[in-house]
Amino acid sequence: MNICVFLSAADLDARYTNPARVFGELIGKAGHTLVWGGSDMGLMKVVADEVRAAGGRLVGISVEILADVAREDADEMVIAANLAERKALLLARADAIVVLAGGLGTLDEATEILELKKHALHAKPVVLLNTDGFYDGLTAQLRRMDADGFLPVPLDDLLHVSADGADALAYLDAAVNG
Ligand SMILES: CC(C)=CCNc1ncnc2c1ncn2[C@@H]1O[C@H](COP(=O)(O)O)[C@@H](O)[C@H]1O
User: Fold this and answer.
1) SS3 (DSSP) at 91
2) Whether the Cβ atoms of residue 39 and residue 178 lie closer than 8 Å to each other
3) Closest residue to atom 22 of ligand 1, CA basis
4) What is the ipTM score, two decimals?
5) Are the beta carbons of 125 and 39 closer than 8 angstroms?
6) In this structure, what are the phi and psi dihedrals at residue 95, rounded to the nearest 5 degrees?
7) Looking at residue 130, what is its pLDDT?
8) 6 CA → ligand 1 middle, Å
9) Distance of alpha carbon 21 from alpha carbon 14, whole angstroms
10) Cα–chain-centroid distance for residue 172?
11) Where are the domains of the chain?
């Protein structure tokens, strides 16, 4: 399975690096391919290091303005012209999407993927990996949108929230392979 992961490019403490490490190892051990933004920094590096060490493939979709921080030993590295093209390519290369802890870049990618799914422009499973309650605020906001009629599609049809990487991967396996 080609699993697209969105997550922070920042250097963070163990509360965030540990879940990224665990999830990368799960991806690699299961023989999946990591599709990610390709930058060799922060959590993006942590997850890619683990996938590689556990035997998985790395497909990076970087962008011209960040090409100088792209990982050098990826199995494949695509350099998109701009961030919009990068997001389209990330989605195109993915069978499933997982959102780990991140900042505005991650949020931008996650909301775009959900908005496209809302409009039935793709039907790929999306998991929000809510380790350490990082996304409690976002899930509360999304549930309120759902409950108060802001979403034309039930939230559960758009997004699965997992508390750990093993649950996320099990959900994706069931969603993609039936
Ligand atoms: C050279 C340098 C300091 C670059 C910092 N900027 C970035 N580096 C890598 N990926 C990014 C960057 N900005 C946005 N992204 C995209 O947004 C996510 C990370 O942004 P953030 O750290 O969550 O907000 C990644 O999934 C990536 O695809």
Assistant:
1) helix
2) no
3) 8
4) 0.87
5) no
6) -95, -20
7) 98
8) 9
9) 10
10) 12
11) 2-177
Residue with tokens 């793709």, as numbered in its chain? 122
Pocket probe mutation, ligand 1, options 6, 66, 97, 98, max atoms within 8 Å of Cβ: 66
From 77, 10, 34, select the one nearest 165 (Cα to Cα): 34
Can you tell me which residue has the tokens 């960040």?
A: 66
Query: Residue 49, CB half-sphere, CA atoms under 13 Å: how many?
Result: 12
CATH number of 2-177: 3.40.50.450
Residue 5 structure tokens? 């992961």
CA distance 27 to 49: 11
Q: Are 30 and 169 in contact (CB under 8 A)?
A: yes
What would the pLDDT profile of 99-144 be if each residue is shown by its tens digit?
999 999 999 999 999 999 999 999 999 999 999 999 999 999 999 9
CB 129 within 8 A of CB 98: yes
| Cα 123 to ligand 1 centre (Å) | 25
